[in-house]
# Entry
Amino acid sequence: TWQAASANIDHFSVAASTTTPTAGDSVSLTITARDFYDNAIPSYNPVNPLNLVSGASQGPRVRWGGNAAVTDLGNGNATYAAGAPFNANGQTTVTVSYERALEALAPTVTESVGGQTGASPAITWQVGPVASFNVAPSTTTPVAGSFVTLTVSAFDAYSNPIANYNPANDLLLTALGASQGARVAWAGNPVVLDNGDGTAVYRAGLPGSPFDGAGQTSFTIRYEVAFENVNARVTESGLGLVGSSSAIQWQPDVLNYFTAVSSSYSPTVNTPVTITLVARDQYGNYIPGANPAGPVTLTATGADTTANLTWGGAGVTDNPDLTG
# Structure
């Protein structure tokens, strides 16, 4: 019976327990030391360290382990210690995991001095189940009453986008921070149903429900109230997974009208009354620093034309017809 000699190591073979694991899961690699004729070398004992190389584009997201002889280098590679013998069948087992999905890797083992090597078949980690959502607004400072486009992305536990994600349950949409829910409107996608109270539902099970090939979908939100920090939140109604946008603060629209507030509504005759004018947009939001394009006419509606009424104050001109 011819025997393989450990001194005649020629190459390694590497077998993977699976070639389609889920992102982040470990794959067992069975490494076999072989001679020139592809015979396994029983109890092969490496004289030099073996280099384990993943070939991953994002090395820090690779993890090696599964064997006390393995030292993970944190960069996608590892070493298998010299003097750590393989078993009687000329084999040893290590594990490798990768967080990034859809990148084919063929991990290799190489004798660090002699250069004898071997590679596993290509392993492609698959995208895992949905674990989070990202909500990106097209702008965070829109004008009051205008729509903001929200792009929602679905990710697995390792931030891999889930292409064509199809929600198993409705997604609940909430405008967190909006004090007047009835003035919020959701639209921009036929599967979105606005509840009229600041919330909406992205309905599952409809032809338009699946996200696109990049794992994204979009819809819009508008709000008539200015200066409130509003976070658009998406909640998976079955799993409770949540994603929220950065704060969106609608800004006042253009000047539309003024409101006037008196310091007194029953003053004594000939006692000055201070009138405070507030510039507002079409939605009633006050406009800081409003600068009217032309003169503002002041009128005392209902005043007796014979009354001794005088307008005053900085920048105010009193007219003889009871206006200013």
User: Anything to note?
Assistant: The longest strand covers residues 26-34.
